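Notes continue from the previous slide.

Worked example: a multi-chain complex. Inputs as given:
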Amino acid sequence: MASEPTDGGTASDRPTLTMSISQLRGRIFELISAGATIFGITVVMGMLVYVARDALRLGAADPGWYLVFFWTLVVPSLGMAGYFAVRDRAAGSVAYAATGIPVIGILVAGGLVIVFTELIDPQEWLALVFALVVAGAIISAHQRYRPQATFERLLVLFLTPILTLYGIPALSVDRAITTPLTGTELFTLSFSTPALLPSVRELLFVLPILPAGWILLLGTVTAPLAYGFGRLIAARRDDERGRLELVAVAVTVVAIAANIGPLVGLSAEGTILVTTALLVPTLTYLEGVVRRREGFAGLAFPVVLVGGTFVGAVLATSLGFASPDPWLDWSFLTSAPSRTPEDAGMYPPLVGSILIVIVIAMSAFPVGVGAAIYLEEYAPDSGRLGRFVDFLEVNIGNLAGVPSIVYGLLGLALFVNGVGLRDGIVIVAGLTIGLLILPIVIISSQEAIKAVPDSRREASYGMGATRWQTIRHVVLPEAFPGILTGTILAMGRAIGETAPLLMIGVADSVRSVPDGFFDIAAAMPAQIFSWKSELAPEFRTGVMAAGVITLLVVLLVMNGTAIVLRNKYQRE
Amino acid sequence: MSQPTTDSATEETAESDDRLIETEVSVSETVTQPAGASTIIDVGDLSVYYHDDQALRSVSMEIPERQVTALIGPSGCGKSTFLRCLNRMNDLIDAARVDGTVELLGQNVYDDDVDPVALRRRIGMVFQEPNPFPKSIYDNVAYGLRVQGKADDIDLDAEVERALRSAALWDEVKDQLDKSGLELSGGQQQRLCIARAIAPDPEVILMDEPASALDPVATSKIEDLIDDLAEEYTVIIVTHNMQQAARISDKTAVFLTGGELVEFDDTQTIFENPADPRVEDYITGKFG
């Protein structure tokens, strides 16, 4: 066939291989798709740069300042990145991980510091941890000695944590019972009982001396965290000693840091949290790099970044160049809102938003995942109930699209007017936004559960596993990364919600940090919204931008955590 | 991967009857028939419906203990449906409805007071596609013992080793029991699934085309394994591959389209001297 002349009699009827088939429409479609992608990314990036320019007030700096940093920071780091990309890819990935891990560690530590300074002091934290450890020990002991008592186990599972945390406290009720609709008073319920059983938590406070806060944190945060991360080292080395070594190194270094910190004006507790979050993941990662003996050169990258920044700052100051005067600085993050733009800060709304997110997570996650498990694993596919379930699923999809202001109205009716909670407090805000993201959590969890292949379920049932065992040991472990990712992404959306907050009466601007879950809250998006109507123009050009960047960074930390967790569980 | 094997097998049988006779001779050599083996599963008038479609028509069969029973037939003939009735896996499909009786040692498994979970603890199952859990090899094998609540009373390590040895996998994986079951090759995964099924020591093992997704080398390993398993367990295996049925089984049941059991007899008889002309057509490749 190959020897036939191309212009021969029979060959001319056949299509030749060199004849090109028109791919014009395909090419045009490809170009349009690429154009849409580039357009979208450019618009979003442009917006971010615009906001960042306002927030950091980059225009205020001398050109000389930029020149200095260009040569000390940008040129060396870009040069190294280029070298890694061309010559040494392994070192490149080490470089970016070794830079990124400490940064994420510090950001997470920031959140922890807020929780420990505003919400819970180390003694209370110790009591909480201790009570939960006792509860865990009782539950596992019960499981070991009475493995067959299923109902009893359920009781133990629910009651033990409650008893260790709260005991049986004194109860005193004095409340008028009214009919729900007309509000006519029926009778007055009034009684009081003495405290019967003190909780483990309270017992701990009876102790005459409790160790200092920083020692408690060292024992309850640094050591367990290092022990957990040590599992990675131990698994890599196939040697349990890896754990203990990491714990020993981390505890020693953090303890030293905790004693040095106060000398330079930092709180001992804050120092512990920051050094722990910085040290433990970084050490774990470094151990891996040393073990693999690959990409050592990458470790120079973070050193160059830090060194370049330091040299640049020294040079720029000594040469007398004006640096930018960012709105988004340390005092912005740590001070309360103010009428003057220079003093305005974001600390109370930042704390408020974190508390609200905690309430959202604790309310929407269990309910949403539970609903998803029921709909996917238990609900029948056919029959009358099956049709009802279909109807429910369609409407859950609809609920995901209901405007958020409607959820605000629902929260107001349900929690403020119905239950009788004060308006504008943390728990009402959290529960309302929890309702808002509930459909999204349900749908994404359902998708994650659906993605577990049926063959795995069949294998489990075929082994004589019950439905519960199949869900617990096969479906949930495999669906968990997906459930977690979906939930955290939904919470990322929740943290930026403004309309429902306005509806349930969250104050625009609160000067004090909320004192707990039942206190008046401020929230970041509401605060940003309120700056829009301030008189001084700097609020609109600078402070607002700084607030937006703060909000975005918190969001980024949450999504980053989701990605890290997902990757970790997918590998196992 | 399985399809060419099956096709070529069918073609070969169609091409020459001599070949078939050779196969038969090998059958009569390898299969030792214990006379009067006792019945472990007695199926009576079993019919299965999916909505209004009848997938199985009034099948009756007595399956002997500690032998290999093969179920063969063309696609869609109901042999897998039949297999899944024996451990009530069809209960998991809402649309399926089952009539008739399946008696395991005299007890009808479709009685109201029978718990399908308890039934499946006595009848293990291996599926067509290897489906290990995304857990370690050790945890895969220990899964059945753990969910059945036996793990605390026995030496789990020893039981896992025993099951892996029985599945002829121990020597290949003994140094890497912590490795994920999904990292094994297809043939190893299927042997892992067999080890998982035999670890809790069931009485009967159901196999739904266990070798159809495997290459010839892995297939022959599985076949050797089935031979060994029949010393301790009752094995019921669905297969597309008639030569496989001839090689490994003591009894063969032939299903034809429409969910009918056409003939059930000693494997030797089925392949040498079938009573039903349709069975002869099928195994010589004229049909199916």
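Summary box: The two ends of chain B are 19 Å apart (CA to CA). The longest strand of chain B covers residues 39-50.
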